[in-house]
């Protein structure tokens, strides 16, 4: 079962600002969970809201995983210290 990855405009802008090595690491991790049988084992559920966080080094990726439609929606990405501010 393969999940499709959709990236929000906010996350896309943040992704473009990253250096190539970090962007490649994040892209590889996203593909890894998209091809996983159970993507929920790779992410951490956020407290109080129905979203998930994926850790890649100092960066966090805020995700929404739609199990019924097999979509992983990347909502936001950034450094750990400020990515949770507006979630």
Mind summarizing the main beta sheet? 5 strands, mixed
Gross morphology: globular
CATH architecture: 2-Layer Sandwich
Number of E-type strands: 5
Helix/strand/pairing category: alpha+beta
Beta fraction of the residues? 25-35%
Q: How many helix segments? A: 2
**How are the strands of the largest sheet arranged?**
1-5-4-3-2
Mean pLDDT: 93
N-to-C order of helices and strands: EHHEEEE
CATH class: Alpha Beta
Low-confidence stretches: none
- The CATH superfamily is identified as RelE-like
Number of domains: 1
Give the terminus-to-terminus CA distance: 29 Å
* Percent helix range: 25-40%
- CATH names the topology as YaeB-like fold
Rg, rounded, reads 12 Å
What does this protein look like?
This protein has two helices and five strands. The protein has helices at residues 9-16, 20-34; strands at residues 4-7, 44-45, 52-56, 59-66, 71-79. A hairpin with a 6-residue loop joins strand 2 and strand 3 (52-56). The mean pLDDT is 93.
Topology, please?
Blueprint: E1 4-7, H1 9-16, H2 20-34, E2 44-45, E3 52-56, E4 59-66, E5 71-79
Parallel strand pairs: 1-5
Antiparallel strand pairs: 2-3, 3-4, 4-5
Short synopsis of the structure:
With about 90 residues, the protein is of the alpha+beta class. The protein is about 25% helix and about 30% strand.
Keywords for this entry:
87 residues, 5-stranded mixed β-sheet, alpha+beta, 5 strands, YaeB-like fold
């Amino acid at each position: 079962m393969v999940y499709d990855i959709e990236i929000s405009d906010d996350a896309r802008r943040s992704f473009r600002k990253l250096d190539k090595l970090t962007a490649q690491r994040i892209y590889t991790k996203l593909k890894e969970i998209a091809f996983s049988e159970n993507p929920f084992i790779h992410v951490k559920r956020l407290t109080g809201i129905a979203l998930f966080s994926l850790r890649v080094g100092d960066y966090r990726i805020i995700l929404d995983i739609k199990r019924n439609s097999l979509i992983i929606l990347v909502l936001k990405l950034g450094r750990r210290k400020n990515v949770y501010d507006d979630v």
